[in-house]
Amino acid sequence: MPELRVDALILDMDGVVIDSGHVYARHWRAWGAQHGIDYDTQIVRVHPGRPPAETIRVVAPHLDAAAEAARYNETLDAEDSSGAIVALPGAQALLESLPASRWTIATSAARSVAPVWLRQAGLPVPDALVTADDVERGKPAPDPYLRAAQLLGVDPARCLVIEDAPAGITAAKAAGAMVLALRTTHVGADLRAADHQTAGLHTTTAATDGVGLVVSWQPVED
Description:
The structure is a single chain. The chain has 222 residues and is α/β, with parallel strands linked by helices. It folds into two domains: 3-19 and 85-217, HAD superfamily/HAD-like (Rossmann fold), CATH 3.40.50; 21-78. The protein is built from eight helices and ten strands. Helix 3 (52-59) crosses helix 4 (65-78). The longest helix is centred in the first third of the chain and has 15 residues, at 21-35. The radius of gyration is 17 Å and the shape is globular. The chain starts with a strand and ends in a 5-residue tail after the last strand. The model has no long low-confidence stretch (mean pLDDT 94).
């Protein structure tokens, strides 16, 4: 199995450690219907990996993105998603194997949503959690991953980012990090900008080596 020695691991949340796509799809369909924007031909091509405001800027530039994103996030906050959000295979084992100072999550979800969903999935909430509310620019800008590395006190170039979406890969590469892409939500061709690919966290392991982390994964065949 391939392996990398890094100082820290930074993971995306949706599609990497939790399965939440069905919840987002339901809310984006409802939002799109209100504004005459089709989910299947417009929104779904843009939203994976991006904060709601960034998605709205692309699919509806005539709207106030900040105001619309706030309303969209309120619908997520108001929903009782208990039982709807579950951990993806391998997520709990991987995160529980890591020292708290050596990993965090950088997500495009709001601060009001991310910790709640992680807890509902039975996963730990990292102290250095970075959400869409903690950065000026969301993915595909590098800000979330630069902020995460800063909070962990490590050089972004010595971090391995685990992502599942092209927008997140773009953000991580722009931050100078190495990227392991998971084929949980996209096909391999969509993830080719990543340094490496694997099926999911169930094929990924990490262990401390006294200095940093040694991360290994099972490669996938194209």
